[in-house]
């Protein structure tokens, strides 16, 4: 996203981000251990100067002449006269210039002589179309406006740089992966091909399948692992029924303040925050993300399941606590803030300097107004309990005055506009990983010869986008090679 997290990924929307800096992975954690964390740009990223493009505020109202400055980056190191133009699409977090120096797309660029551009998404990072993040201003935040940003950027850049007759290829991962597919779908005269990695192209209000994949991904390491997680979660839920246990729970999880469970929203937020560590680790398991500056890449499914399987730590609840402590240590978190009231306060702060302005307030708005994607515990075939759809959707009303009925209608409109799983276009490749929970909303089987899927067993979110390394699974290396072959073929068409 995500989310975020993508990226996220968040109403714990781990969509966020494959290449951005909020929860990096961004639909990433907008609460929990990495709450509103900003990932620092790599020093190498400073080699690429940020540039600014004059963009329209509202592409769908010709009478509105307001403009703003959108941030972008350029890498022309591999460009050869007559070569293609690669456009990396920004997502739900700050664009990370480290991607101008690392990533599989640059390997392709070097081989094909491509010019590389990265355009930051409106309302994220430094791309501020409005003075604040009020709900009124967030009406200008949508995937449709973002696609129109891409179209206008592509048109003007082609004219000013003499690239009109070049073949443009869109790249994106997570939510930007969806944008890459939709850019080709809606503007086929402007973009020749797209690589839509880990793209959740089907919008849905309730997304219980996310946690079902989390169960299967944990079980792929050890069949007992998700069973133990479920036992721990069930124990915790049972203890929450007795306020006398709150002091011990506060100490166990090193909460920033004494646990207060006065409403179902309080309970759901607490339980979701703890579950989030498992969700995050599964989503990005083994991804080669170190160059982005993210923390915690050493914490994998194997590590979590090792802790959950360690009987010397005590019962499953004690092991669950140990996982939480491990995550806190990893992210240098002094204490865990599980206060829903604090979360509401942060998410309703409309300042660009607010604690959720890194992407949390914006991305959750997009889920309420376009996508849903709510990762609920409504399925019995997953390890957690306590954060149902009602909890997720109520946040739309609390933060933006968007009702549950409006969320459902918005999601239906999104699928009507883009086609959901039934996308009809050409020259789009859809890579997905079997470990990644987001593959449940993506294209995992070929739609047509020129709409192929690349389903990579054993890999997680956006794995094919990250730099290659010696320990990569053979099928991941083959997937990267296959995508390159497709690009080669499509460049000749």
Automatic annotation (TrEMBL):
Gene3D superfamilies: alpha/beta hydrolase (3.40.50.1820), Serine carboxypeptidase S28, SKS domain (1.20.120.980). One of its GO terms (molecular function) is dipeptidyl-peptidase activity. SUPFAM superfamilies: alpha/beta-Hydrolases. Keywords: Glycoprotein, Hydrolase, Protease, Signal. Residues 1-25 form the signal peptide. GO terms for biological process: proteolysis. InterPro entries: AB_hydrolase_fold, Peptidase_S28, Ser_carbopepase_S28_SKS. Belongs to the peptidase S28 family. This is Serine protease 59, putative. It comes from Amphiprion percula. The lineage of its organism: Eukaryota, Metazoa, Chordata, Craniata, Vertebrata.
